[in-house]
Amino acid sequence: MSHADYQGCSEYLQLTRRQFMAAAGGTALAATAPAWLPRVALADDFCSSRDVLVYIFLRGGADGLSLCAPIGESEYYLRRPTLAIPQPDSGHPMAAIDLDGFFGFPRVFEPLMPAYQAGHLLVIHACGINDTSRSHFDMQRFAEVGKPADITLGTGWIGRHLASAPPFQPGSILRGVGINYGLQQVMVGGPKTTSVPKPEQYGLAGDVATLAARKAVVQQMYAGAGEPLHTSAITSQQTIDLLNSIDFSGYQPAGGAVYPTSTLGLSLRSTAALIKADVGVEAIAVDNLNSWDTHVSQGSIQGGMANSMATLASALAAFHADIYAGNGRNVTIIVQTEFGRRLQENGGLGTDHGHGGVMFLIGGNITGGRVLSHWPGLQPEQLFEGLDLAVTIDYRDVLAEIVQHRLGNPNLAFVFPDYTPKFEGVTAQCQTTAGDMNCDGAVTVDDVAPFAGALLDRDKQQAESPGCDVMRADVNADGEINGRDVQQFTNKILGM
């Protein structure tokens, strides 16, 4: 069976067909701010700008044992005689890239090595949620709402984060975007959040010559409508106008980035354009549907999954190069899936639904360049229910740390109800030296002159103060010294 012929299990196919209808209902829910919001509070130790969050979901249950292979486990090669990623010293042209002597990337992940070597890419292995379900529907829902087995919870964890944190920009009309035909569950509940399948084509369809007249008719239709319909209609038109002001089609990536023409590549290109437009968007969700439900003819080395992994790697590598060429906003990227795959390959040269899996974090404030795992082992007695990689890190431990340390939101009991997270050290320490331009241990008016010097001529300022790193002027930690650092520098002086 070729990659083009491959189809996932019947549940996965049904789920992808009905996601639009289910998610579309969530779009309306996100349009109004509900009454159950907690009091907004910022973390006491917050000292750099909040990151924009990009959340990528690999729908279908991506095989973590191929995404990051345990090359030091003999049982892996015993149980997967045809699907295991070849060991680095095997001489195979698709041999694994050795990461630390125990874990290795598939060869098609080579485009991600610059991010990994820069310390921006963190791999988290044997992670998930400890629920016995192997249903796509259940486990996708549990991951996105941030709580297993609770049918009463209708909002997503990102939606609740946005609902319990103040906006980046006061008065912003768009805070969350789901690049999809229906709003992803994870975003539901977020104020000023909507789904936008193709940002470059968002708006009223039809003849451009009659656009103004049709917009006027729509405004007239809803002028006398009651709430929340009236406000929702106005906000929708404002969102259309905002997105139409961004030149998505003419966007020029930075850092030599070349985005692939895959759906994921184009979505991340639009995501980068949206972030760099700096219009107040704080969270963007992107779905990746590339044949991750690999029951038959998985093709981890060559074939379907290898192609999917190559597509993922090229899109992420381009986005990383583009964003970290300097953009004015810190960005954290989360790549997640609902579950991993079974250890034992099946008779159809594929793998069935499993348990523990892999997630990736990418960002300048992520403690990357490593694989984080409390590895449970692959011997029969070490497997979950004797079949699957066990879960030793709960997704929510990772997500909660990002929410608090990188998104500046301490309301974890609200974002992840009925769960007490244990942080795993996935985020970098706060940049406490930012703004201290004379290296005296404090940010005061004495730092104003050297800060201004760094803004005007970084090299000259460094030469005048060789003992104090000029990059302390990069107060928002985005790799650039520019006007975006001024407000935060001023706040530090004022003790805000």
**N- to C-terminal separation?**
61 Å
Return the structural class: alpha/beta
Structural domain tally: 2
**Total beta strand runs:** 11
Cα Rg: 23 Å
Low-pLDDT residue spans:
1-6, 17-47
Structure overview:
- The protein has 496 residues and is an alpha/beta fold.
- The chain folds into two domains: 10-415, Alkaline Phosphatase, subunit A (3-Layer(aba) Sandwich), CATH 3.40.720; 445-493, no CATH class.
- Helix content is 32%, strand content 10%.
- It has 15 helices and eleven strands.
- It has helices spanning 10-30, 64-67, 74-79, 113-117, 136-145, 157-163, 211-223, 229-244, 263-276, 304-323, 395-405, 412-415, 448-456, 458-464, 484-493; strands spanning 52-58, 97-98, 104-105, 121-128, 176-179, 193-195, 283-288, 331-337, 357-363, 370-372, 393-394.
- Strands 1, 4, 5, 6, 7, 8, 9, 10 and 11 form a nine-stranded mixed β-sheet that branches. A two-stranded antiparallel ribbon has the order 2-3.
- Helix 9 packs parallel to helix 10.
- The longest helix is centred in the N-terminal third of the chain and has 21 residues, at 10-30.
- The protein is globular and about 65 Å long.
- The N and C termini lie far apart (61 Å).
- Mean pLDDT is 86; it is low at 1-6 and 17-47.
